[in-house]
Write a structure and sequence with these properties.
The complex is a heterodimer.
Chain A lengths: L1 E2 L2 H21 L4 H26 L3 H31 L5
Chain B lengths: L1 E2 L1 H22 L4 H22 L2 H26 L8 H6 L1 H16 L1 H4 L23 H4 L2 H22 L3 H4 L1
Helix pairs in contact in B: 1-2, 2-3
Classes of the chains: A mainly alpha, B mainly alpha.
Chain lengths: ~100, ~180
Amino acid sequence: MYYLNYYYFFYFIIIFFILNLILVLAALDHFIMVLIFLDLLLLTTILLLVIISSLSNSVAGYNYALLILAVAAADTALGLGLFVLYFKATGSVSI
Amino acid sequence: MIVNNINFWFINILLFLMILTLFLIVFQKDPVFAVFSFILIALISFFLLTLIGAEFLALLILIIYTGVITVLFLFVVIMYNLRNINIYIQALIFNPFIIFLIYKIYWFNKISNNLICLLLSQNYYLFTAQYQLDVNKFVDLFNEYHILFLYAGVLLIVAMIGSVVITYPFYKQQI
């Protein structure tokens, strides 16, 4: 039996968050990759909220995680709609 | 939180795989395979949350991320036949802002090195109390927090109507 060290988990999530932030900046040439990395940013926040709620034994984290899931779905829908318009107007993918 | 021996190593391996698959997205040339490797991260987070004990959100992530978001991405990528990505990784490496960020990550690593070490974590832990999730508290999720579900539903409706309005060709009717 082991005790799960949460610092380890938080450290990985922070690294994942910062890497995604860097990749959003680096992938500005490709609109769809920016949207993919934005979704991964939201996924890391969901993981953080779930772990914090499991530590504090409260349900509040789960609720905010649900809201962030809805935000992620809305984000991709509107972002890809904008991409369709942008690609029709300019014919290029880079922002 | 006490976990089994097998779960402990699975969680550590999955966390490493999560970062490795992030690089697998970056180095793909074809955006279709980039979206497929995006599915891998959603699956890894699904397994992580099931190992921790949050099955409800794990299933939600499995449904929404792999069932909704990746389908949207694949639809757009295949419809417009986008086959060549050029993410400039050289610009990523030589950007001074990113060098500053890597410097910060390095010092965070140095400061919290004792907390992170994998072998030490067997003996060193912060939360000593044994934790078990009260299922009765999840009833609050439907009693006290039900309005958040409604907010989420309204947000999705607004996004759906907005995406339809954005992409609908109004200019053809005017002509």
